Amino acid sequence: MADVSVNDSAAERVGYITRVQSFSACHRLHSIHLSDEENKRVYGKCNNPNGHGHNYKVEVTVRGKIDRLTGMVMNLTDLKKYIEDVIMTPLDHKNLDKDVPYFASVVSTTENVAVYIWDNMVKVLPTNLLYEIKIHETDKNIVVYRGE
């Protein structure tokens, strides 16, 4: 029988896992707290009454101790399921402003989409595991949120 020894320092090693997922959605940048004129000035063409769409790319990163027995921070199969439940089901191919109750009173900026995803991911992930939500709205516009 082979002696399997685990290096004690390995139990303290921290790893980061990122899972990438894409979804498509439309929205209109419009604040109920601003006049129509102010909305047009602040949001420009993104305030189009008919909205506009994006192919978002979301990176969900978790951070935690690498389990000395499994060698994992968490099971990627579980992370995939959480992403499906929190991001894909409620957001993919949806009008964020009309189909997602959260955005009825919150402007659907990418910053607020990141907050929405964060707030819902922390509800399903083990405590203190979520590290970062990064959303690529376009190739040039990227938002990072770490729950701060």
From TrEMBL:
Names of the cofactor(s): Zn(2+)
GO molecular function, a single term: 6-pyruvoyltetrahydropterin synthase activity
Active site: C46, H93, E137
Reaction catalyzed: 7,8-dihydroneopterin 3'-triphosphate = 6-pyruvoyl-5,6,7,8-tetrahydropterin + triphosphate + H(+)
Pathway listed: Cofactor biosynthesis; tetrahydrobiopterin biosynthesis; tetrahydrobiopterin from 7,8-dihydroneopterin triphosphate: step 1/3
Enzyme Commission identifier(s): 4.2.3.12
PROSITE patterns per UniProt: PTPS_1, PTPS_2
Cofactor binding, note field: Binds 1 zinc ion per subunit.
Chain sites annotated for binding Zn(2+): H27, H52, H54
Keyword annotations of the record: Lyase, Metal-binding, Tetrahydrobiopterin biosynthesis, Zinc
Gene Ontology BP annotations: tetrahydrobiopterin biosynthetic process
Gene Ontology cellular component list: mitochondrion
Function text: Involved in the biosynthesis of tetrahydrobiopterin, an essential cofactor of aromatic amino acid hydroxylases. Catalyzes the transformation of 7,8-dihydroneopterin triphosphate into 6-pyruvoyl tetrahydropterin.
Sequence similarity: Belongs to the PTPS family.
Protein name, as recorded: 6-pyruvoyl tetrahydrobiopterin synthase
Organism, scientific name: Sparus aurata (Gilthead sea bream)
Top-level taxonomy: Eukaryota, Metazoa, Chordata, Craniata, Vertebrata
